[in-house]
């Protein structure tokens, strides 16, 4: 018989918690005395507390009662003491974006069943292996088991794939590449990879994937990549019109084969494409056109997210070419008046549709370039942000893009209101907490990242040396108010969280329409709390230090930086505890999503890495404080709730723990974030406050990271970082 969790008691009376105060606006608590315990085993003089033996964390016994409960059953535990969901949460079922300016109140985002949002669902993402219609292939190994990822070979070559048998599969599409296009691709391969003296390393073999394999890769592209970020129109794009676009689509599609054989083509295909683009854009000085722009952007995302940092370095040299794509969009808008298209004669509707799709494709490419740049700011520590002029471009229109014939497009076009520009949309969502209700998923993701950018701009300004100085007509007078500056930065962060909640409302409505299934935008929304609330630079600095060689760790400057990182992380986990717990909560929601709805999108491996790093850091630097103070943070609560809360919770006993990676009632979320008094469990980990939890978080994280690193993130770089932290 399963043991029941022990009941504890703790008293929140001294905390004087205002349960009606908006959760996003909970303040930084400077009154908490931060416990600066180090896990680095260094001289603790730089901190206010002595060093903590690193073995302490890994050698403490697990609470046996708790461990047994969750080892026996991974299904959500039924807790009879949880208050029923507030009726006001039913509003979240609306598929429209929130039209209210009210900040988030209990029940807005975390309700589970009364409105269908985040309802427990047993759906799983589609398995890639065995691939349909492909025979005589080996299954792709995980990144920890793939020996190719541990070798540093500079030789380029395609494998021999003549043994692969590809059959026609019903519903998988007809052949798209012609013999003539294939011949053009191979001619370019010979010229740029076998016989060219321009590039440093020639390919050591003339082997090249057969037409059937490349054609299969195009189908994988349209099945897996294009639905997430639609950059190539599936109905109007002629892949045989320009072989370089066909090659780019093959390169991306080859990443989704889940076979060791075809995966061996991925890096050579991207390198071949990179060289072909260099020849076109720099040596031949070809004018930018739509197909060339699409090929460039697809190669850009492939180099950035497929493999290692060495692969990325080739990517950072293309700012001018990428800017040319955006310039091409603006020039195309000057040359044609898109708004007059539907008024043309009926016989010209098809041409009008094609013209609109070309303009929309350039719009999407321009925004995707901007999106890649913004993502790089928080994914990669070596990324240098670029200013791309896209803010005044109207947002993409998914409803029109999805039309499959000219007549449907024309009818829809006449009824559709034009989308706002990104700058207009971000201004509206900050000021009014609203957004256009029929924005597509691509536009909502763009808007979310624009919210990050607004906050990042303010945050960067507040860190400038002169930001707290007010210019005066008297040069001898100094006027500085750092407290007001800190308040400004904090308020912008809180406002950004409100904007995210507005978008999350719409996502919850979509989830309800899908009967509980979560769409890809949900991942971005949960991960947004990591972007906005977590000291990512300090986390990476600490992780890099712990991974470094012994000689590097002995350097005084590196030790000082590591200790400073620990200090800031400790302050985040303790003094900024409510925001840290909000981030941790959404990391748990992120794990729920990624385990069930992973789409093998290019951003998923890095999101997993940062979510796990966040959970690990909070587990380490908050639980040390709890062990030092001897506080217990689980059990029944003696509290003084507001009148509105009293009715909701007075009839039930209070919860003792929360499952972070399971749907939760809002009352539990409020209690966990505001007071931090619940034990917090994650499947495969147990209580994140337990002494052994940090190691278990890292191990579970590595397992999840490997599961989503079949198409993207084929590198041991981040796996090794997590391993170094154990």
UniProtKB/TrEMBL annotation:
Keyword field: Coiled coil, Membrane, Metal-binding, Nucleus, Transcription, Transcription regulation, Transmembrane, Transmembrane helix, Zinc
Biased composition (Basic and acidic residues): 641-650
NADP among keywords: no
Region annotation Disordered: where it falls in the sequence: 627-660
Regions crossing the membrane: 600-621
InterPro entries, per database record: XnlR_reg_dom (IPR007219)
GO molecular function, one term: zinc ion binding
Coiled-coil portions: 546-575
All copies of domain Xylanolytic transcriptional activator regulatory, residue ranges: 219-428
BP-aspect Gene Ontology terms: DNA-templated transcription
Origin superkingdom: Eukaryota
Official protein name in the record: Xylanolytic transcriptional activator regulatory domain-containing protein
């Amino acid at each position: 018989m399963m043991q029941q969790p022990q009941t504890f008691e703790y008293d929140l009376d001294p905390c004087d918690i205002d349960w009606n105060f908006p959760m996003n606006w909970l303040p930084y608590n400077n009154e908490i005395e931060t416990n600066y315990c180090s896990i680095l085993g260094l001289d603790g003089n730089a901190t206010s507390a002595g060093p903590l033996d690193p073995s302490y964390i890994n050698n403490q016994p697990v609470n046996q009662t708790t461990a047994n409960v969750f080892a026996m059953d991974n299904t959500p535990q039924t807790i009879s003491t949880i208050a029923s969901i507030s009726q006001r949460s039913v509003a979240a079922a609306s598929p429209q974006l929130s039209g209210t300016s009210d900040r988030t109140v209990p029940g807005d985002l975390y309700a589970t069943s009364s409105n269908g949002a985040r309802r427990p669902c047993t759906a799983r993402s589609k398995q890639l292996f065995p691939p349909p219609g492909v025979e005589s292939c080996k299954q792709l190994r995980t990144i920890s088991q793939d020996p190719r990822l541990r070798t540093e070979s500079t030789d380029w070559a395609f494998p021999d794939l003549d043994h692969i048998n590809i059959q026609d599969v019903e519903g998988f599409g007809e052949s798209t590449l012609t013999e003539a296009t294939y011949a053009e691709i191979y001619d370019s391969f010979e010229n740029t990879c076998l016989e060219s003296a321009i590039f440093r390393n020639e390919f050591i073999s003339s082997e090249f994937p057969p037409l059937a394999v490349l054609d299969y890769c195009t189908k994988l592209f349209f099945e897996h990549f294009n639905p997430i970020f639609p950059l190539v129109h599936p109905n109007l794009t002629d892949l045989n019109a320009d072989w370089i676009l066909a090659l780019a689509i093959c390169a991306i599609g080859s990443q989704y084969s889940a076979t060791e054989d075809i995966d061996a083509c991925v890096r050579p295909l991207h390198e071949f494409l990179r060289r072909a683009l260099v020849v076109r854009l720099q040596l031949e000085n070809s004018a930018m056109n739509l197909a060339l722009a699409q090929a460039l952007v697809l190669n850009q995302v492939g180099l950035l997210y497929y493999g290692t940092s060495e692969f990325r370095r080739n990517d950072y040299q293309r700012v001018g070419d990428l800017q040319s794509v955006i310039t091409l969009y603006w020039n195309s808008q000057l040359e044609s008046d898109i708004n007059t298209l539907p008024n043309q004669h009926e016989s010209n509707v098809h041409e009008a549709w094609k013209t609109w799709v070309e303009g929309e494709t350039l719009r999407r490419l321009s925004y995707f370039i901007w999106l890649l740049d913004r993502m790089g700011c928080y994914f990669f520590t070596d990324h240098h942000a670029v200013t791309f002029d896209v803010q005044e471009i109207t947002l993409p229109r998914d409803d029109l893009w999805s039309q499959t014939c000219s007549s449907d497009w024309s009818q829809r076009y006449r009824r559709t209101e034009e989308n706002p520009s990104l700058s207009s949309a971000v201004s509206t969502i900050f000021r009014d907490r609203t957004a256009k209700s029929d924005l597509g998923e691509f536009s909502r993701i763009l808007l979310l990242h624009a919210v990050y950018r607004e906050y990042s701009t303010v945050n960067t300004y507040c860190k400038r040396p002169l930001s707290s100085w007010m210019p005066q007509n008297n040069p001898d007078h100094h006027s500085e108010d750092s407290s007001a500056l800190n308040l400004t930065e904090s308020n912008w962060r809180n406002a950004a969280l409100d904007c995210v909640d507005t978008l999350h409302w719409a996502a919850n409505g979509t989830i309800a329409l899908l009967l509980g299934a979560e769409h890809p935008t949900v991942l971005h929304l949960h991960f947004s709390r990591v972007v906005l609330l977590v000291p990512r630079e300090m986390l990476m600095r600490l992780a890099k230090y712990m991974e470094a060689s012994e000689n590097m760790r002995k350097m005084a400057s590196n030790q000082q930086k590591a200790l400073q990182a620990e200090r800031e992380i400790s302050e985040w986990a303790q003094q900024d505890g409510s925001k840290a717990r909000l981030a941790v909560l959404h990391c748990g929601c992120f794990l729920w999503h990624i385990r069930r709805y992973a789409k093998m999108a290019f951003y998923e491996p890095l999101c997993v890495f940062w979510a796990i790093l966040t959970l690990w850091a909070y587990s380490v630097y908050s639980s040390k404080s709890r062990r030092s103070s001897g506080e217990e943070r689980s059990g029944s609560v003696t509290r003084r709730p507001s009148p509105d809360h009293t009715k909701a919770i007075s009839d039930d006993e209070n919860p003792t723990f929360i499952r972070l990676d399971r749907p939760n009632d809002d009352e539990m979320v409020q209690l966990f974030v505001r007071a931090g008094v619940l034990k917090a469990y994650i499947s495969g980990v147990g209580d994140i406050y337990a002494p052994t939890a940090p190691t278990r978080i890292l191990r579970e994280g590595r397992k999840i990271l490997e599961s989503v690193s079949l198409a993207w993130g084929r590198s041991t770089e981040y796996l090794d970082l997590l391993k170094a932290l154990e």
